[in-house]
Design a protein that fits this description.
Chains A, B, C, D: Catalyzes the NADPH-dependent reduction of N-acetyl-5-glutamyl phosphate to yield N-acetyl-L-glutamate 5-semialdehyde. By secondary structure, chain A is an alpha/beta fold. Helices cover about 30% and strands about 20% of the residues of chain A.
């Protein structure tokens, strides 16, 4: 049994970690750290946690964490983990950062897209990008995990097999992202205001989303080529769920059925990827509350384009679930441990 | 390990049973029976079940069921279970009926409110009303369970402590029900049409809901008095969730805090009931996907009324979760087994 | 043509006034006053108003308003209008206050429920409660209108005929209110956060809503008796729409059909009240975007209770539409002018 | 004053026509024709129309229509108007078909995409495609209008200026469509079932949508070149609203600001097109209930792509509103007559 701390206790990432860890037999939540509400019970903010978490949240105390916990999940806003994780380097504590702080290994890029000072380069260099379907071996060896963003998880899982097998061109890739509102977290803004968001589709951060360099970096790594993508994001009137619709020019003469076979074979040993049968496409509801990424594929013969639909629950495979999947791998447990649940439908 | 069959495989009740049974270590889904789609895989209809259920659905075969399964869940529309369950009387198979067929022990009442011929009287007499917070000992001994309706579950749990302790009068009780659309099942109608239901509150079946006699029967049993209630139902633009707001004239001079204490003590040994602190009230989201019934209480001193808010997930505590809770008790397992999960929030 | 000013230019009340006044031939929006954003165009905040309002919002200047406008709508939060309206007393400017500042004629009650200092007594005394279906003659003569709250509009219109005709008792009246989120305005809070509100029913302000004394005051005035009501409010996952379900003990032996006749006759000359046929009930969608109040009635013979469902659009009949209806009456125009539109469905 | 008939009285297209025609001073609804419900009042099905339409719906009678009405709106499913409109050719009755029957002038294409026999070629040849921003002069002269589909309206208005000015290539155009559920009409199906659609994004008809040939035909006409597009459609959990996100390779070195200028100049005399300022994009809510098409533009310099967001209300500019706009032009009235209303927000 490993002891776990969650830093950033009052956000949705933490709440989802708590929900999922309740089903995990080898991890025990020892501490929940909150900068703004330490001393309080988390059930004051989230009454649905009554009966589950009774200890008050605590202030950050790095020395005590080193003594008392084995794994730390950072469910913090951008700009927090980068200043704390370096203190754990050299210790045996495993750090899994759900924020974007360690995803761009270029310090300049981080400054440009996040508008903050980056983590120390040696921390950036040690962090492993926790997309287990692609970097499983590195994850197993990692002490620091940079957990992927929600859009990059969906986009990379949907594109990488086609990139790696040179089914599609490296340029002119279009990614049309659609996300539920919980991706914006619990802070209040026009983006999260019910009356502004309900019965509405709202394009946002067009050409300016911080997930653009993340997607391009890992696609480029796979392709061993410099890939740029046209990426847009749309806010959808739902709480959870994220789907990227992707379009890319075909490099090969290939049918829908052949692409499906190729993806199935690529993900054969990866339990959280489900490839849909020809002519059918995933919906976000079909992965709701689960760690699945469901992928549908279509070759448009008329236009010579590959169309990919890649659906996840942004709070699970796009955040807390993937973090636990990474923790499982880092500790030699079954990758699916605690995550082998059926999506909640309807 | 007990083998389980689910009859009525393509409705939401069955799908929710499958989701919850996946977390249960002592029950194994052996068969899914579907009258309309036997021979097909359930994942054709519900792609989110891919990887979980691979065997095709089967036709009903009572003799084989007697041989091969220990427990049958009836997730069938009204009018089906009543004709099948009698065939299992005398066998060792445990039958749990999620429909309304066995809830009214008066054959005449069933005919009046359901418009169908009732079950045989000896089946009605053998069936135990599976509200474990009230009838736990009977449930433990039962072979046939009549699983309560969604509104009655919420209403009875919210009213019974006050009735039993004569805090409120037996007359002039008002129950204002509010439910998500999944309660109407998967069949298509104006009630379940998105464009008719979204951005809308729709009163329905005013004075004519088949849950009225069910609520009144069990309240009356508790009170040892004939209780009638004014009960209305409102369709809310959400998928899951049900809350009854109840109003009853006080019979005693009592404060909110005293009523809360009384409820807490009444439900002390019942793990799925959570009583809210004074001044706070449950929301349906706070029980989403879970077997909890969360209850908030308020004494309106100005009008001498008790106000109760009682929230459940209509598909869990209002259907499949409660059915599993009953199965746990019937088989001597921990009441919470497979149900000890945190609500999914947000 | 009368010139109009709207004070409180960036809230939903103002935006709805602008939408409705666009259809009005005798009122012209001369000025929009905003304390927080004067100098800016309103289309910066509300791009849907591009092409309609081009002049920048202005700072409050009472002298210029007296010179340049004939009618002022106060779409301001509680506590603003009460300090401004007295400056217009004695002038010819008509003031219509959409906030709660002038609704309680008792200064003590205002202090208690709103937590602020009240308006001067002489302003309170001059203000007419702008519920035209009940106070039409007074409205016609008024210079200052206190526009009713959204819940009181629905509740009073649903109860007054039965109170006035002594169909129901003056005590033990229950009002179960259900409202869309736009009633909470545009400010950001947990109440208006999409992820907290979507797929959720949330009871709020139980026993503490500032509409309680307003409802009771006007019911009591009609009854010439002191009436108290048990009033609860529930936040529904929709933007617009409000419905009160009301329950009251019958004082008379009466059928549903007779109550319906009585209401139809009571509201015969009131074009915005539509009484539903027996056995049918209004939904909020059926009044969406319109100034209607649709009412359904049911006599529960089993429990001797009258059940009333009264649906409005909270931003129209519950705010801006009713304000324009009042302005029409004050100026001798047809009550329906600018408001004779069909609800938007679906 | 012209007399109007609506055929297809019980669908959402008819209901929206009724709503909008209520604001029109020169058209009077003389008849509502319903094949399935003639003899009944439309308010039986749509209670919100009580007080507005009192005459019962009628059976189709072509001779009487020729005598009694001047304009007919066909709000019928595919396959109906094509068999009726030929009977009005040669008469003075103006026919406006909201279905897809006359949109594809190639009889073969209609057969292929709609699976039905096409209209007579001479009817196809006479019908004018009613997209007034492009074909205004032809519309003014037309007797038969083929009213554009909802997706084509959004896509064509968003792409045509760039095509016509050769800003973008004629190939590799991607159109990612997102629509509310009302586009699927009132008939009941899994697509329109609340529990299947709420909290969900559902890709549908990928590569098979009957709007594909319509979009390509009119783009090709403008380009005088054969254009194919990759077009996908996604069902969004909202009732109304449609937005197409479009991506096309740039043919010119151009900035966002220059593209915006070009669109503004292209649509200068077209009152229903609003081009957003640089860096801002329309949301569907901002056109809700109105005849506007709001367009946002962005040049992605990194990938050399033009991104267009084009938002409409699918029932107004995508159906009934555009039909009225066409009727205005055909009859020499102001194009905006009856349509000059502010979107309903929020």
């Amino acid at each position: 049994m490993k002891n776990v701390a969650i830093i950033g206790g009052t956000g949705y990432g933490a709440v989802e970690l708590i929900r999922l860890l309740q089903l995990h037999e080898f991890m025990h939540i020892k501490k929940i750290i909150s900068h703004s509400q330490y001393g309080e019970g988390i059930a004051n903010t989230y009454p649905h946690l009554t009966e589950f978490i009774k200890e008050p949240m605590e202030e950050l105390d790095i020395d005590r964490l080193k003594e008392e916990v084995d794994i730390i999940f950072f469910a913090t806003p951008a700009g927090v983990a980068k200043d704390i994780i370096p203190d754990f380097q050299g210790s045996s504590v495993q750090c899994i950062d759900l924020s974007g702080d360690l995803r761009l290994t270029s310090a300049e890029q981080y400054k440009e897209w996040y508008g903050k000072d980056p983590a120390p380069q040696e921390t950036l260099d040690k962090a492993v990008y926790g997309l287990p379907e692609v970097y499983k071996e590195q994850v197993k060896q990692a002490q620091i995990i940079s957990n992927p963003g929600c859009f990059p998880t969906s986009a990379l899982l949907g594109l990488i097999p086609a990139i790696e097998h040179q089914v599609i061109a490296n340029q002119s890739i279009v990614i049309d992202g659609k996300t539920g509102v919980s991706g914006a977290g619990r802070k209040q803004s026009a983006m999260t205001h019910f009356s502004e968001t309900n019965e509405n589709v709202k394009p946002y951060k067009i050409g300016a989303h911080q997930h653009i360099p993340e997607i391009e970096k890992y696609l480029s790594d796979i392709a061993k080529d410099s890939i740029t993508t046209t990426f847009t994001t749309h806010l959808i009137p739902m709480t959870r769920g994220l789907i990227c619709t992707m379009y890319a020019p075909l490099e090969k003469n290939i049918t829908s059925s052949e692409v499906i076979d190729l993806y199935e074979s690529y993900y054969e040993t990866h339990p959280f990827i489900r490839i849909r049968d020809e002519g059918t496409f995933p919906t976000t509801r079909e992965v709701y509350g689960s760690n699945y990424c469901d992928i549908g594929l279509y070759v448009d013969q008329r236009t010579n384009q590959l169309v990919v639909e890649s659906a996840i629950d942004n709070l699970v495979k796009g955040a807390a679930g993937q973090a636990i999947q990474n923790a499982n791998l880092m500790n030699g447990w079954d990758e699916k441990h605690g995550l082998n649940t059926i999506p909640i439908y309807p």
